[in-house]
Amino acid sequence: MVPMENHNSKPYEVFLLIEELYLGTNKYPFLMINPLSQFGSFESTHFEIINYCLVSKKWKEYVVMHLTNALDFQNINFISPFMKLVNRHRSVKIYTSMASYVKDSKKTEFEYKKILIPIFNYDGFNKILYSRVEYPNNVNFETHIAVNKILEEDENSQPILPRNVNNLTISHYSGCNKHQIDQTIEIIGILKPKNIFINYDSFNEEGLAIWKPSIPYQLVKNLSNIISCPHLKRFRIGLPVMEPFHLLSLNNQNTKLKELHLSMDFDRVIKLLNGKTKYSKHFINPDNIQRDWDQMISILHSNRTIKKLTLGGNKTSEKDAWDETLSSTCITKGLKQLLSNQKCSIQTLELYSIDRSITDKLFFEGLALNTTISSITFCRYKEYIPFLRNIFPVNKTITNLNFYMIEEEVFFKILIELFNINNKNNINNINNIELYSISVYFQGDLSSQSLDKAVSEIKLYNLPIKQYNIYTYNCFNYKKQILLENNSIINLKIII
Asked: Which top-level group of life is the source organism from (predicted)?
């Protein structure tokens, strides 16, 4: 129960902020697309909440309860200012190095609920991998496999001990051999990481830029073994190299998968299925791709664990542009079936570099009928207007729209379209759209003039949206929060 009876009070507004911003299922809409970015600068809110907790025992109990339940390694950087309210044994600790943990280990081994130790140098990783040291169950590692640095069999005779690995990144393939890739897959099976990100190489061993970034064929071929690991919770991959057969081993009875990045070259899949056989060279299993796609959809349709789905990764150039005469129903029929499923578990959808290839009529129909997705993030997406016209006002479940790397003029067109949708056939003054928030990360640096115009446009259209979040590297002279006449809020969030 909320510890404030007056829901119009300032404390209650701050309570909503901590519950919805820090503890909600869609805390940081852009974090997974750009994992190196740290969005923050919520200092004033931190101080307000802490001050309320200092003067109200009920407030402190309520806030601590939520913090304890939600606290994990994914959001520690965002809610760390509140840690003074939480006892150590219920908190988490992130060390900066193995040395700092070793120095502290005797006194803090069981003081924290969870401990995270990052190890990103290759020698350190090999030492942990083949070490005989047994670490307590509350110790987790965040580490990086450089495939071309993995020791050959004759260089190491020690068996690998299981470790608690929270985040594992895989990269550095230049010069690697088949044995090292096989070893990588074996190591993943032993370490049982919760989160895996398979990156690609942009530079070779000499530090020179690679003209065409890639992931080794042997690793791509074995993605099924990685995705089907029952311990895996989050899977992301840096290039659109996936094929439908990679999901066919996913066992819905024992999987813990919560976030899936379906990074597939949808353009080429559709072209191949439309009879353009020259594209078969881009696939491992081209002859069965339609059958595999249908089976994959069936597996995802029955899944009840995946909460976040990312569709994306087209690498189409101008020379290989999308052909408007092609039919995309060969895959969008399945996507409609997946999205319109009444038992769908997906709550967050990301469209990453997706154009007209899959966002056709069937896709829009499926999304319009969806009753579980509350948040959608667009990254380098171009079909905003057809999306808005087809989804609203039919869909009342989607309440958060997040636009990443969007041009300013495109954002202003989105506001106009939302205004038109909201006022179309609006006889009884009932809103046609029911959005809670719009979050925007503009492409390029945002000037003070651009920010002025963005704020002016938001004020002009006076949409029934609770809050707008504008992410920027520059703070200028703006307040961090602007309250509009219709009680909407514009939050200026500084990217640190």
From this structure: Eukaryota
| Domain presence at residue 388 | no
Domain that includes residue 67, residue range: 1-86
Q: Does residue 63 lie in a domain region?
A: yes
201's enclosing H/E stretch is strand 201-203
Under 8 Å between Cβ of 93 and 115 = yes
pLDDT tens, position by position, for the chain (496 residues)? 333 333 334 444 444 455 444 444 343 333 333 332 333 334 445 666 677 777 778 777 777 776 666 666 666 666 666 666 666 556 778 888 888 888 887 765 557 778 888 887 777 787 788 788 888 888 899 898 889 888 765 455 567 777 889 899 998 888 889 999 999 999 998 888 999 999 987 665 555 555 577 899 999 999 999 999 999 999 999 899 999 999 999 999 999 999 999 999 998 999 999 999 999 999 999 999 999 999 999 999 999 999 999 998 655 444 566 677 889 999 999 999 999 999 999 999 999 887 677 889 999 999 999 999 999 999 888 788 899 999 988 999 999 999 988 999 999 999 999 999 998 866 666 777 889 999 999 887 778 888 889 999 999 999 999 999 998 877 666 777 889 988 899 988 777 6
Total domains in the fold of the chain: 1
Domain membership flag for residue 21: yes
Q: Identify the three-state secondary structure at position 368.
A: helix
In terms of pTM, does the model score above 0.90? Answer: no
List the alpha helices (DSSP H) in 424-468.
448-461
Residue 35 within a domain: yes
